[in-house]
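Quick log. Single chain, no ligands specified.
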Amino acid sequence: MRRWFWILGLAVGFSELQAFAQDSGQLDIFSSELSLSDRLELVRAALAELDDMVASGDRMIKDAQLSGKAELVRCLTTALAPVRTLRDVAKTASNDFNAALAASDSAHSDLEFRKIMVALDKGREHFSRAVICGGTPPGPTTTVTQSNVTLTPEDLPELEAQWELFPSPGTEF
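-> predicted structure:
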């Protein structure tokens, strides 16, 4: 069950970025052709997502403390500590990004933009580790229902390649 929450969390996080990329017609967020307004929107969304991860992580730790599960608290604290640091790094890089834009220093603004995007990616990685620890992120619940799906032999190689993207619970990183 926790595996589905982890997959759902990753899907929601990536869908926002993919939807943005599809709407803007850009698939490469590091492209030099990405407009300034698109970069500013990506920075804003990245900072908001990192803040949400920290807030969700704090709630997961609080819930684990209330349940008296010391091992879960330790695991969550260890997994979520880098997320807080990455959020602070992204905020500092955002300030530097804005200062570089004001100074018309495109090379420096590009560097700071990349820092923010890498911090977001690493933050997602560490947050997913917290979910794997056994923490359940607060938020809407998901109901999984049975559906009638027909697979042909031609579909199987594609599905097998996609399945490798999601490690089984308990997989070490």
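The chain is about 70% helix and 0% strand.
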